[in-house]
Amino acid sequence: LTRDLGYELAQSNQKVLLVDADPQASLTEFLGLNTDQIEHSLFDAVIHREALPIHRLHGMDLVPATIDLATADFLLNAEIGRELRLRETLRPVKENYDFIIIDAPPSLGNISINVLVAADEILIPVQCEIKALRGTKHLFDTIEKVRLLNPNLKIVGIVPTLLDARTRLNTETYEVIQNRFGSRLQVFSPIRRGVAFAEAAARALPVQLHAPRFEGISDIKKLAEGLLNG
After folding, report:
1. What's the alpha-carbon Rg for the chain, to the nearest Å?
2. pLDDT per position in the chain (230 positions), as tens?
3. Could you say which DSSP state residue 147 is in?
């Protein structure tokens, strides 16, 4: 979602920086970088206070991740002001972009806390599967705690993903998402499941370039328009 949303915003003449803050480095690999060959990554910027390594890809800028980031949670434990490191790292470039989109890890460790402290707004993707809903309460609890350090942090909304309207459980879960969050948060139109997303990942391309006629692109466009007009 991060890659394709960033590309859509870039196509709307927005200056976009993608930051891969997930040790799995999926965003980095899905944009065609070999993590084994990356010499400088987000890890070096956050832990060693090096300059941000920025790569230009498909009209967007990317700060890549590597597996080294998996050790950052442990290394930050001993640091004073550890929650602020990512915010400090991004500050010199923040004014250069219309959108800085950070792909956060699923676990709520030091790196995730850094992402929440650095962010102005949060967009929460939730898969249309029951198990994906279970972690949302912990996330919202964490957001409330992080607001002590980042009081202006705003939740933009929920993005239901991987919706397959042919599957009853999927559609029922989508209804649960709407009912649970719709009264207090914006629930964006869902991103439909499609094999083109997996194919685009394998080819390391935004889905818009891999399959321009794929119907799921309209879902990405709606989300981008919602953010631009929001």
Report:
1. 17
2. 999 999 999 999 999 999 999 999 999 999 999 999 999 999 999 999 999 999 999 999 999 999 999 999 899 988 888 999 999 999 999 999 999 999 999 888 899 999 999 999 999 999 998 888 888 888 999 999 999 999 999 999 999 999 998 899 899 999 999 999 999 999 999 999 999 999 999 999 999 999 999 999 999 999 999 999 97
3. T
- Tell me phi and psi for residue 159, to 5 degrees: -115, 105
Q: Which residues pair with 55 in a beta bridge?
A: 62
Determine phi and psi for 78, rounding to 5 degrees: -90, 0
How many Cα atoms occupy the beta-carbon half-sphere of 206 within 13 Å?
21
Type of residue found at 96: N
Question: If DSSP codes are grouped into helix, strand and coil, which group holds residue 135?
Answer: coil
**Which helix (H) or strand (E) is 136 found in, with range?**
helix 136-146
Query: Cβ of 12: how many Cβ atoms within 10 Å?
Result: 15
Q: Is the entire prediction scored with pTM above 0.85?
A: yes
Work out the number of other CB atoms within 10 angstroms of the CB of residue 91: 11
> 55-57 and 60-63: which strand pairing?
antiparallel
Q: Are strands 154-161 and 121-127 parallel, antiparallel or unpaired?
A: parallel
Check: CB of residue 28 under 8 Å from CB of residue 49: no
